[in-house]
From TrEMBL:
Its cofactor is pyridoxal 5'-phosphate. The modification N6-(pyridoxal phosphate)lysine is found at K102. Pfam families: Pyridoxal_deC. InterPro entries: Group_II_Decarboxylase, PyrdxlP-dep_de-COase, PyrdxlP-dep_Trfase, PyrdxlP-dep_Trfase_major, PyrdxlP-dep_Trfase_small, Pyridoxal-P_BS. This is Putative serine decarboxylase. One of its GO terms (biological process) is carboxylic acid metabolic process.
Length: 245
């Protein structure tokens, strides 16, 4: 098995490139494979891709690294965030992955991985009984998912996705501000729509709202389906419950 080296993160959840540099220098005899997060699972942190590339090159790893950008949730939102660095194959990255069932809203779990042609050629193989070349990772895939993705992309278009991203970010800031105003500690990364706050003490409340928790924190991922009315309803109930916990 390939050896995995963990890199420290900041309190925001973003990669700590100072520690990343230290770990690189400790493993200078090996090439590096790096997973760059475009929205971490719990805190929605977006790693600084440009700084990661700069750190690799300044540490002597030029042309000796492979970067995968994990954009499962935020990969399709980041192009519409003004301050965000571009995730593009004009930079020395190897692949990008996004989910189709999260922000896009495909009714079944699915994902898309975009990579360079040389990597696809290395993976793909001729399948005699199909009379075609298979370039999928698992050897098969759901045929309905691409249709749903194609339909949604065509229906909403660039402007439609742009409006939905702006709505998500605006509502996320609204939720964070309302939580803080109610005396509840909350955090929102600058490029994210994931609001992190104190874990509710009532597990029934956690189950009712299907809150994802880790340790003493919980989060709300603000997606297009989450409107102000729903956030206000959640906030009212949270504040009422906290009064008796």
């Amino acid at each position: 098995r390939m050896e995995c080296v963990k890199v420290d993160t900041h309190i925001s959840g973003e990669i700590d490139c100072s520690d990343f540099e230290r770990k690189l220098m400790q493993n200078k005899d090996k090439p590096a494979i790096i997973n760059v997060n475009i929205g971490t699972t719990v805190k929605g942190a977006v790693d600084d891709l440009d700084l990661v590339i700069k750190t690799l090159e300044e540490s002597g790893f030029k042309d000796r690294f492979y970067i995968h950008c994990d954009g499962a949730l935020f990969g399709l939102m980041i192009p519409f965030v003004k301050k965000a660095a571009k995730v593009t194959f004009k930079k020395p990255i190897g692949s990008v992955s996004v989910s189709g069932h999260k922000f896009v809203g495909c009714p079944m779990p699915c994902g898309v991985q975009v990579t360079r042609l040389k990597h696809i050629n290395a993976l793909s193989s001729n399948v005699e009984y199909l009379a075609s070349r298979d370039a999928t990772i698992m050897g098969s895939r759901n045929g309905h998912a691409p249709i749903f993705l194609w339909y949604t992309l065509n229906q909403k278009g660039y402007r439609g996705f742009q409006k939905e991203v702006q709505k998500c970010l605006r509502n996320a800031h609204y939720l964070k501000d309302r939580l803080n105003a109610a005396g509840i500690g909350a955090m929102l990364n600058e490029l994210s729509s994931t609001v992190v706050f104190e874990r509710p003490k009532d597990e029934e409340f956690v189950r009712r709202w299907q809150l994802a928790c880790e340790g003493n924190i919980a989060h709300v991922v603000v997606m297009p389906s989450v409107n102000i009315d729903k956030l206000d309803y959640f906030l009212r109930e949270l504040v009422e419950k906290r009064a008796v916990w």
